Known about the structure:
Layout: E1 3-7, E2 10-12, E3 18-25, E4 33-39, E5 46-51, E6 58-60, E7 68-73, E8 78-83, E9 92-99, E10 117-118, E11 122-126
Parallel strand pairs: 2-11
Antiparallel strand pairs: 1-3, 3-8, 4-5, 4-9, 5-6, 7-8, 9-10, 9-11
Amino acid sequence: QLQLVESGGGLVQPGGSLRLSCAASGFTLDYYAIGWFRQAPGKEREGVSCISRSGGSTNYADSVKGRFTISRDNAKNTMYLQMNSLKPEDTAVYYCALGRRSNSCSSSVSPPATFDYWGQGTQVTVSS
């Protein structure tokens, strides 16, 4: 069965760190672009970071550059988002996604419409 399951979210103080994980089953990550997205209440889902299908390009939203790091472990079929120096404005539900299209992860802020498979999301709350 095709599944993407996020974990690692929670409550953290400003300046703290969290590491999100996304375990994939029924997929081979080598064949897909991977991406992390987030959605805050009342706002549209936005791209946070992604790696292209070829692995040749890694993109980050301007708001997270220098603070977040995307990675994947193909042997474990798992992708990660390391989040450091967290700010209250990072509060959102975070989603992992896979894209099989040629335009998946074609820009710094990847539109959700360019990705095809989605996890259920994990809540990240940054508050003192």
